[in-house]
Please model this.
Amino acid sequence: MYKMILALLCLLPLAAAAQQVQLKGLFGSSAMLEIGGEQRLLKSGQTSPEGVTLLEATTDYARIEANGREQKLTLDAPVASNYVRSERAEVRLVADAQGHFSTRVWVNGRRVPVLVDTGATSVAFNYPTARNLGLDFDRAQPVNVSTASGVARGYKLNLDSVTIGGIKVHNVEATILPDDFPEITLLGNSFLSRVDMEQQRGMLILRARN
Model:
C-alpha cells in the first residue's frame, strides 16, 4: 500500500505538468489564463488551484511560474505547453477574416505592426515608418524600386535584429520604399526564410531554428 501511495504521489506532478496554460486576456495587473480547460482570472502574485502563479502582468505579456519554471506569454504567442519552455521558441498567429496574419514585432528594439507576407523578398517599410524607427539611412544602399507610379528611389539596409515573441533573428535585410507604401510593414522572406513555418487550421506557427 505504501508503495502504491508513493507511486501515486510521484504521478501527481506529472499529471499537473501535462496541463496547458493559455493567455486569454490582459487587464492591467491581472491576466485571464486558461489552465487545463479552466479559465482563471489571476492578479499578480496569485496562484491558481492548479498551481500556476501569475508573477507579473503588463499590457504586453503575462509571466507565469509552474512546477518551478517561468515562462512569458504574449497574446501573439499565448500558449505555454506542459508548463515548460520549448526547446525552440514558438509563436502562433491566427488568421484574420481575410486570411492574413498580422502581429507586432520588435525592430532594433522598437515595436512596429507587421503583416506576414511570403511574397515579399525582404522586410519592407514605408519611408515614414523607417524614419520613426530611427533607421540609419547613412548605412543604406540606394536602389530603384517599382511602385504603382513607376520606378522610384528606395533603400536597402540590414536591421540589427527582428524579434517576434521569443524568436530573435539578427542581421535581417530590409527595404525602405518611398512615400507611404506599404501602409503596414511587410514581414518578408529575409526574416521568414530563417525560421520554420507551419500552417494548420487557420493558424501560422513560427519556430526558431536551433
